Amino acid sequence: MHRTLLLILMLSATMLAASCQTGGPEQTTAQAEAPSDPAPASASPGKGNWPQADSTLAGIPVFSTFEEIAPVFQQDNDTTYVINFWATWCKPCVKELPYFEALHEAYEGQAVKVVLISLDFPRQLRSALLPFLEKRQLKPEVLVLLDGKYNDWIDRVDPQWSGAIPATLMYNSATGQRRFIGQAVDSVEELQTALEAVAATE
Amino acid sequence: MRHLIFLSALALCLALTSCGEVPAEEQAEATTATEPEKTEETAEAKTVAQKADGVAVGEKAPGFELKNVDGEMYSLDNIKDANGEQPKGYIVIFTCNTCPYAVASEQRIIDLHNKYAAQGFPVVAIQPNDPAAQPGDSFEQMQERAKEMDYPFLYLFDEGQKVYPEYGATRTPEVFLLDMDKVVRYHGAIDDSVRDPEAVEEKFLEKAIESLQKGEAPAPAVTKAVGCSIKTV
Fold first, then answer.
1. Which of residues 112-151 of A touch B (CB under 8 A)?
2. B8 and A6: CB-CB below 8 Å?
3. Per-residue pLDDT tens for A2-20?
4. ipTM of predicted assembly, 2 dp
5. Helix B2-20 and helix A3-22: axis angle, to 10°?
């Protein structure tokens, strides 16, 4: 038996059980759901607030630890968050960026927030990331996460994530829906379909 | 507990149903061209299928017959350790020329082989990227890199990308530590700092090898690290 799979199944099973108890309408799609964030809901006093980085580089927030950026994954409101992990040297990541830009544009003024978290190496921020951002003028918010102790935080983003980039997480606390996409997306429509499902109350 | 198993089984049925809709070749990630009308369910199922089809810790590793940079074919049945003996285990690492995380790990992979091949644990590196998607990972470029860095270990080419999906590998670098019976005993990262060798605090893989040498089960048996998605067209 695949131990990781079993763990995931147990978590989804828990979710199934939870939705059965409450008669939640989401149970029909529960097999496609990511397990809910394993982090304790009330552990972080800053929960609900958008995190402030301890430093910035040309106006880009730079987070040195996952702990500091964690509130991005715990926003307790009715906005749908679309969070993409990328890096300038990652070809499939750069290839799919226009879809995230298009999504951002399509939902401007609505309760949707697209966040692009760069995992560029510390020594490449000035030499690669800043010139890239200067050239591309990305509209969605760009954050930098430098925490290289990946094993400590990959599962906190989503237990389904193997660690390969690109990877995208969508969640909405008000609907209780999540989607984890562990590979590159091929169109803005693919993102839109996922987003609509996450934003939908039923 | 029984309740839990029942629920797991229920979830399993659901998961299998969705897996069944996805052909094996759809697991390939990154640059795979998929029709735009694919729904998010398909995307999710791909991820599930990837997990379900991989090899788990405790399971026998899939066999293979792959070409080494020296032109010879190698399988788990003809690989020897540094003493020409039947290995006590195999350090299978999916890695490549081009991924910055793989490049950052290169010296560590060389050191691992130099340290452990004589103790019965040779490194078996497998390059899973399709050169059509990543020209820097062609067989010729692999040969060049191996020569340049004087790789002491096998550097095999997963031509046709048949092997990595059977292991369920998704990124480079990604390690599967097998015991002498070719059972996977550890899966994941070399250590806790793939990007920066200077910042390593825990050597997960070395600890796992030492556990096997003592006849113990590695703990942790599974770790994760950020890596480059395996490239396909």
1. 119, 121, 148-151
2. yes
3. 454 444 444 444 444 444 3
4. 0.77
5. 100
Is residue B23 over pLDDT 80?
A: no
Question: What is the Cα–Cα distance from A30 to A25, expressed in whole angstroms?
Answer: 9
Q: Which of B14, B44, B183, B223 to mutate to test the interface with A (most CBs of A within 10 A)?
A: B44
H or E element that contains B178: strand B174-179
pLDDT tens by residue, B96-142: 999 999 999 999 999 999 999 999 999 999 999 999 999 999 999 99
* Contacts B170 to A, Cβ<8 Å: 162-164, 182
- The amino acid sitting at B59 is E
- Inspect the interface and report whether the beta carbons of A150 and B189 lie closer than 8 Å: yes
Predicted confidence at residue A171, as pLDDT, reads: 98
> Which helix (H) or strand (E) element contains residue B156?
strand B154-157
Give dist(CA A94, CA B61) in Å, integer: 34
Which domains does chain B show, CATH number per domain? 1-53 (no CATH), 56-229 (3.40.30.10)
Quote the pLDDT of residue A48. Answer: 65
| Domain covering A34-199 in this structure, CATH number | 3.40.30.10
For residue B191, what pLDDT is reported?
98
Omega prior to B23 cis, within 30 of 0 = no
Extract the tokens encoding A57.
């580089």
Rounded to whole angstroms, how far apart are CA atoms B28 and B161?
A: 9
What six digits make up the tokens of A109?
A: 């003024």
Nearest-Å Rg of the Cα atoms of chain A is 17
Domain ranges of chain A: 1-33, 34-199
Q: Quick one: three-class SS letters along chain A? A: CCHHHHHHHHHHHHHHHHHHHHCCHHHHHHHHCCCCCCCCCCCCCCCCCCCCCCEEECCEEEECCHHHHHHHHCCCCCCEEEEEEECCCCHHHHHHHHHHHHHHHHCCCCCEEEEEEECCCHHHHHHHHHHHHHHHCCCCEEEEECCCCHHHHHHHHCCCCCCEECEEEEEECCCCEEEEECCCCCCHHHHHHHHHHHHCCC
| Model confidence pLDDT, tens digit, residues B160-206 | 999 999 999 999 999 999 999 999 999 999 999 999 999 999 999 99
pLDDT tens by residue, B67-106: 999 999 999 999 999 999 999 999 999 999 999 999 999 9
Per DSSP, the three-state class of B187 is strand
